[in-house]
Each structure stands twice: as structure tokens, then as C-alpha cells.
Design goal:
4 strands, single chain, four-stranded mixed sheet, alpha/beta, elongated
């Protein structure tokens, strides 16, 4: 799948060279990311106040969507968990629930 939109706040650099990525609500890490030399932080959820702060910090904050950043890893986690359970002698099946994105995007 591809992203339907890009939700950006804060500084818009001319060229993005380094992006720190965090799943979940990673907007609180804008200060650490800036100290690490990042031009932007991409996260699953960004709070309103952190979006405002990102401008003064001089870093971009990209809200990539909670579902969009976490769902791709769920399939990999199911495979890893299933393999580990099998290694431990369990006959467990890890099934993915088909959970569509609850958001509708309008262009």
C-alpha cells in the first residue's frame, strides 16, 4: 500500500537528508531527533502541541498515521512469534485479523 497523504508540521527543509522514524506517538522525540541531526521525525501519531513546537525547534514533524506505521510490522511479528512458539515446542497458529484502515482520505 502507499500513503494517501503526507501530514507535515514545522520546519520544511529544502532537502531532507535524515529522518528519525518512530511508531506510535513519537512527537515527543522532536528534541532528541534534532540533537541527533535529523531534519524531520516521522511518527504514527503527533500531538497538536508538538506540531506547534516543531517549528521553533527547527525540525519537520510528519504524522504518518497510527495504522499506516504499525500494520506493516504486525505480519512480521506474527511470523516471528509463530516461529518462536514452534521452537519452544508449541503448536500455535498466529493469525492476522484482517483489519482495514478505519480512515477515509479525501483528495
Amino acid at each position: 500500500d502507499e500513503f494517501q497523504a503526507l501530514k507535515w508540521a514545522g520546519a520544511e527543509p529544502r532537502q531532507v537528508k535524515k529522518v528519525d522514524l518512530l511508531s506510535g506517538s513519537g512527537g515527543d522525540y522532536i528534541y532528541l531527533a534534532k540533537a541527533r541531526g535529523a531534519d524531520a521525525v516521522g511518527t504514527g501519531d503527533a500531538k497538536y502541541n508538538r506540531a506547534l513546537d516543531s517549528e521553533s525547534v527547527g525540525i519537520g514533524l510528519v504524522d504518518l498515521g497510527h495504522y499506516e506505521t504499525e500494520w506493516p510490522g504486525v505480519g512480521r511479528m506474527a511470523g516471528l512469534l509463530g516461529a518462536e512458539l514452534a521452537r519452544l515446542g508449541h503448536q500455535a497458529e498466529c493469525l492476522l485479523l484482517d483489519q482495514p484502515c478505519p480512515w477515509t482520505y479525501q483528495k
